[in-house]
Specification:
Elements lengths: L2 H22 L5 E10 L5 E10 L3 H10 L1 H11 L7 E6 L2 H18 L16
Parallel strand pairs: 2-3
Antiparallel strand pairs: 1-2
Helix pairs in contact: 1-3
Length: 128
């Protein structure tokens, strides 16, 4: 299978898996995002990278998804017609949490660092 076709399959699977996860499950105040899907060239297996922000622990979300992988695969196979339906494996991608932590750290540094005094009158501020 060409790389371009595989990219299209990955994107289509990402959208459909995301739709199933949002409609079929209750996440109790947790935001679940399908960040990436990587299907093997033979279409037999797929890794689904999940971003999680909210109240539920990530391990619990991933466990719930992997327990219900058969249901998810069944629904997706009815929407996406492929030679065979890939066996999905859900994995946690913590980049969203790390991004939030980084933004909070930058905000904290900005608040706690002393500010430079203004440039004396008549001198040009080279950093502005």
């Amino acid at each position: 299978m060409s790389a371009r076709r595989l990219d299209k399959v990955n994107e289509l699977m990402r959208r459909e898996i995301s739709s199933v996860i949002q409609k079929e499950f209750d996440w109790h105040g947790t935001i679940i995002s399908v960040l990436e899907v990587s299907i093997t060239e033979d279409l037999k297996e797929g890794k689904v990278w999940i971003g999680i922000v909210g109240a539920m622990p990530p391990a619990q979300v991933i466990e719930k998804l992997n327990k219900n992988r058969g249901l998810i695969q069944s629904i997706v196979s009815k929407r996406v017609v492929l030679r065979c339906t890939p066996r999905l494996n859900f994995l946690y991608d913590d980049s969203a949490r790390r991004g939030v932590d980084l933004v909070n750290l930058i905000d904290d540094i900005d608040k706690n660092l002393p500010k430079a005094p203004p440039a004396p009158e008549g001198e040009e501020d080279i950093f502005r």
